[in-house]
Amino acid sequence: MDEATFWGCVQNGVKPDRGVPELPSEALPADLVFVLISRVGLDEMTVAAMSKDEAIARLQKYWMDGT
Q1: What is the pLDDT of residue 41?
Q2: By three-state DSSP, how is residue 1 classified?
């Protein structure tokens, strides 16, 4: 970390970039993933390949049909 970054953090609360990847805006919420795997019975690879809209639609189908 250089001096300007250090003082920017100390004086202005600007956190330095530490290389932590940002989650994609379409990342599935953890509780949705948990329900799809534990209640619906989908495997992790199937859930990982789903878009957020697909995952929500699949959960809604489970709630409506029980399948």
Answers
A1: 97
A2: coil
pTM: 0.62
Give 28-49 pLDDT, tens digit per residue. Answer: 999 999 999 999 999 999 999 9
Distance CA 21, CA 8 (A): 21
C-alpha span between 24 and 34 (Å, rounded): 18
Q: Distance (Å, rounded) from C-alpha 57 to C-alpha 38?
A: 17
- Quick one: CA torsion of 58, 64, 66, 67, rounded to 10 degrees? -40
User: Which stretches within 1-67 are classed as H helix?
Assistant: 3-12, 30-35, 44-48, 52-65
Paired tokens of 48: 């990982």
